[in-house]
Amino acid sequence: MQRVLVTGGTGFIGFELVRKLCEDGFKPRVLVRRPHRAALFASLDIEPVHGDLLSVPSLERAVAGIDTVVHLGARASFESYHRLAPTIVDGTAALAGAAARAGVEHFVFASSLFVHGDADQPIGRDTPPAPRLGYGAAKLEAEEALERIGVESGMTVASVRLPHVYGPQAILFQQIRRGYAIFPGPMTNRCGHLHVTDAARVLAAVAAQRWTGRSAVADRDSATWVEFFTLLEAYYPYFRMVRLPRRLGYWGAALLEPLLSRRSRPTLYTKGTVVGFNLELPVQPQLIWEDVGLEPELPTVALGIPAVFDGFVHYRWRHPMLDRRRS
């Protein structure tokens, strides 16, 4: 059986992936930067290893004896490129370099749909990247670094461009549970979506089957944000959507971002967040799914959103962006 290392395993998507790998019979090694968050895995059979994407010696230790790396760890926010590059670009390249030197055979990178810009047609395999955000530019640069390292070393590489991934642990839904959310823009743009359960399933399949390439992935329904939040209000009557004109939201974020960026923790209140939520990003429905012989369990937001509220029964979980503890 493959020996799998997961980075970002204490995060929103990574935690679901680790749980899925354990269900499939793996004992994943999980890179943990803040030790107190390893308590999330108390009920799972994992191998924790302390490390940091900015520490090459810790990465070399983490990849020793590993066959497959699934890399989700990085600063995950729509901040400026220079805030994101150290973990997304440099950290990914450092991890991939360590993996190649250790003889890792397959490297799976959780990239982002935001390597693309506004798309008139559903994004497919041949849609050229055109990032509008620093986050998307950093992810694309990391993809390209991985390709070079893979070609040089013989390590196979998969870059899975995840869409908007949602679930009971997502920071958006933690805001929704407070009773409101603010959306800057008309909300009529289409976007690829994916329930976190299916995000974990497709990443696990890409790792197990050693799928290679670069591709977006989503469910079957590139819904508009109007449709998404209308469903939320139907299932959660305590929730209210607060709409702002896009320009007002953008300039409000422009005022807040310099103040909030003084903190080390990532922030959601950025100009990039406003731009990102207003991009037209529909996705062809069967990308990657057909290749790995799977179908989404929750193929539309109409099915996925009620499942999120079911999940609230199970989760008392704090998103890493809201976790202020450092160790």
Describe this protein's structure.
With 327 residues, this protein is an alpha/beta fold. 39% of the residues lie in helices and 15% in strands. It has 11 helices and 11 strands. The strands form 3 sheets. The protein has a 7-stranded parallel beta sheet, sandwiched between helices. It has a two-stranded parallel sheet with strand order 7-9. Strand 5, helix 4 and strand 6 form a beta-alpha-beta unit. Helix 1 crosses helix 6, helix 2 packs across helix 3 and helix 3 runs parallel beside helix 4. The chain is globular. The protein starts with a strand and ends in a 16-residue tail after the last helix. The mean pLDDT is 91.
Number of strands: 11
Radius of gyration: 19 Å
Globular, elongated, flat, extended or rod-shaped: what is the shape? globular
Strand arrangement within the widest β-sheet reads 3-2-1-4-5-6-10
Estimate the helix proportion, in percent: 25-40%
Q: pLDDT under 50 segments (min length 5)?
A: none
> Sheet with the most strands?
7 strands, parallel
Give the overall average pLDDT: 91
SSE topology string? EHEEHEHEHEEHEEHEHEHHHH
**Strand content range:** 15-25%
In DSSP terms (H or I, runs of 4 or more residues), the helix count works out at 11
Structural category is alpha/beta
- Tell me the span between the first and last alpha carbons: 33 Å
